[in-house]
Amino acid sequence: MLQRDQGKRAEQLSRRALLKGLGLGAGLVAFSGLSGCTQFLQRSESSAPLASAGAKGSSARKRLAKLAREGKRLWKEILRDYNRWQATRNENIKLALPEKIQKAKTSSLAVVDGLDTEGLTPELNEELAKADFSNVSEAEKTKVIKRIMEDLADTELPEDEAQKLKQVLMQPLNLDAKKKEVLDHGGISSYLRRYIKGIDSEALAPNSISYQLRAIQQSLCSRAKTTCMVLVGAALVSILEAEVWDDTYEAFFEFLWASFTCQGLLREYC
Fold this sequence. Notes:
- This protein is mainly alpha-helical and 270 residues long.
- It is built from 10 helices and 2 strands, in the order H-E-E-H-H-H-H-H-H-H-H-H.
- The chain starts with a helix and ends with a helix.
């Protein structure tokens, strides 16, 4: 496995050297057929290790990536429960959701707080700020959509909802504008913290007279927010696990894509 990974990296480095020799500039986008995922080639120095790859920074990234992966798992479980409740109206599923949501929120907020306390937030914001997303091809967008839908395959999302999500994902994107929005809101950690805190862990709790009238709409909105947490959480895991700029660039692309998609979901359901 290690030899195969080293071989892939060597081929990527060779490809970058060739592109540099041909005089191709920043912003070039290409694919790696070996890895099966989108590869973004920004500039010749893009293969350099990230600044946080030192002992302390690397350790922090790994620790937070593990916590982010656990948070994503919790959100996927919640999304699966939402879908099962919609299909069965099992009250036991519904009543267990608030506690699960609170646990997932706590886990995700711990990751976001960790970005700040470990000193990774300024670095990630700087990396995001320098990324140019203006030349992403339709083929690359298709690959990202496929990866997102495959990640949601085990959440029991109804077919009609899956098709709606695909349609939202296929809408025209201005990811550089979305990047500016994230940075204007204080960067990645501030943007995520504001979103996570806005998820109501008691949204499905039957604690008011008007609950029955609002239950269906609340559940759809809560499911949309949970879907967003799965999408953004997956991208955050990739950002934290990245060791070189190419991988971080692709993860940022998916992070902004998920954030952009969530705008459409929340407009429709919330």
